[in-house]
Specification:
homodimer, about 400 residues, alpha+beta, NE0471 N-terminal domain-like, Double-stranded beta-helix, 2 domains, 6-stranded mixed beta sheet, 4-stranded antiparallel beta sheet, 10 helices, 22 strands
Chain lengths: ~400, ~400
Amino acid sequence: MKLGADSRSDRQTRVEILEQGRHISLSWPDRPSSRFHAIWLRDNGHDSKTRDPGSWQKLVTLHDIPAQTRVESATVNEESGQLELTFYPDQWSTCIDTNWLWEHRYDVDEPKEPALFRSNVATWSANFAGALPSVSFAHAKSDPQALLQWLSGIDHYGIAIMEDIPIRSESVLEVVGLFGFPRQTNQGTWFEIKVESNPINLATSALGLQAHTDNPYRDPVPTLQLFGCLQNEADGGESIVVDGFKAAEVLRQESPDYFHLLTNHSAQFDFHGGGQSHLRSSKPMIECSPEGQVVGVRFNNRSSDAFTGIPFDTMQAYYEAYRRFGELLSSEELQVVFKLRPGQLFITDNTRVLHGRKAFSGGTRWMQGAYADKDALRSKIKVLSRELSPPE
Amino acid sequence: MKLGADSRSDRQTRVEILEQGRHISLSWPDRPSSRFHAIWLRDNGHDSKTRDPGSWQKLVTLHDIPAQTRVESATVNEESGQLELTFYPDQWSTCIDTNWLWEHRYDVDEPKEPALFRSNVATWSANFAGALPSVSFAHAKSDPQALLQWLSGIDHYGIAIMEDIPIRSESVLEVVGLFGFPRQTNQGTWFEIKVESNPINLATSALGLQAHTDNPYRDPVPTLQLFGCLQNEADGGESIVVDGFKAAEVLRQESPDYFHLLTNHSAQFDFHGGGQSHLRSSKPMIECSPEGQVVGVRFNNRSSDAFTGIPFDTMQAYYEAYRRFGELLSSEELQVVFKLRPGQLFITDNTRVLHGRKAFSGGTRWMQGAYADKDALRSKIKVLSRELSPPE
């Protein structure tokens, strides 16, 4: 019966060689077809001469692959689900899983307006206050699923709370140890945040602090910051956090010109550490990937140096954009405010979420901080996800 | 006498208020004049209410400064060299050193073609072999001037050699301690490079390795890498280094299109660490600042994942550009080759200079590596420069 035959053939993955083997077209059941170039397929072969089976590292360089590479033959093995390929001119053969090809296809219509953030970013504003990702230290330590959920929260939202960390010095490093490694700097692997009489850094005085990202004068900037609270008997001193990605999103909606000014010009940041250190960087306040996705925010009035990299004819407008971005970051509509109790810790993605605090007086406010990096956190998410996923 | 009067007045710094106080023009003796905006001057005041005299951190936010700020009065105090300013509408007064203003002027003609690198970068090719910056460990440790010169060499060229490091485990960390801090990763604060029978990472096998930057799958990438040689009785195994900035420069000269392809599309890098880690990043092979300056190179065939972020219609050309960049990076004209002796170490700027090695066999080849970051190195250069400069 004709219908039956068609229906059966629709369940097959089919391949067609196009443009004299310069690329192929692959059609999966119930999915749109997708094209792949010969050079891409050859570079991504799944054979053991192309990729080390153990480490999955690539064993060939592009130099080992003829520039004029074309697909000579292509067959789908329905049983194994492999695309079997032979290439001209060197008769190289390889096979690639067709599901892997679906997952790694690149022949997709470009969106009219590319997404402003990578896909797993969820922006937030003031009403996020009751929904901050949270876990207890003991739970995160003993239950991989709870740890995975907490780390994924940081990856999505750029902020999370931890409850009941040990009330002892350096416990912030124990939290870092749950997923990664401290970023050691001239401040050490961890640092005290207490009032000092003649502070080198304003963060240790009792003044309120406008929401900011830490250490914008460092390159590379620490990508995660943690603050653990060991004692908090002061009046005031509430913590403030704000999603810099949300502010960037609002700024772009309100004024593409302002957004463009802050992404297309580098600001200068500077820190003199009492003769012992002198750190400087030149980076845009809103950093985009070449594809136009926002990948980082730097904002810190205290360590902003004189902006000298911006042309005279642009400076007035730049300051207007800088002012508006600061207003958004300081607005009650975007900020979440909470007061840390002893044993509470918060962690932020320091390339995205700004933190600050209200002024305080009387009583002791004792916090300890540390920096760490996101690559280890994201690696931990992937490893835990795989370990905890049900076997197929 | 008229001539004398003119001559005297030319020796003075003069200020003029322009555009109803929106900006001023400052004329120094024997230098071109330069304009400064009211808002910029107000934001950069040198008074103790604007900047903390101890930490030099900024005490005001832009929100504290009226948006309609203009210069109401401006006078140069010839004795003190200060520009004395009063602002409308809040009668704020401040003063700023006129030499500081000269150093921080931004009213400059934009160059027709902006420099491809920051000003203190000097690119190099194969004939740099005999001129690599070098110092002995003992000299660097005991003589701040020698250490400063060595660190400045790394900053200029992205590579340096150190002689006579202690032949003992972890001595590479002693070298890091001369200027900064190790970047701890899942590989530890330092790591062994020895042949292993079933290596997770190809760098520990005896194969030759195409020149590459380390850990492109990390974000942030370690910005400095160090290799110390403790034993080298193998045949072959010469180290290869190549200036990625030089290759980027040549690529842009040869083919602006290829350069554009590698700067304007992100490549994907990936590393599976035997079930214990899974690191991924998406970054361009040649990374530029918003101003178009090359600020980083990532190149590593072994950890290149399938490129999926590049549109189908661009992929063929992208591979051509990738191939040509790889050819340049592998060319004898650009590469410097040397064989490390026990006690020798080399350090590279891992965002710029690629390293590789030739295959080796027989005998033991024992290296230890570590990662660190450039911000601390540049800070050390600034601190040493100030300490060693003759008092004024």
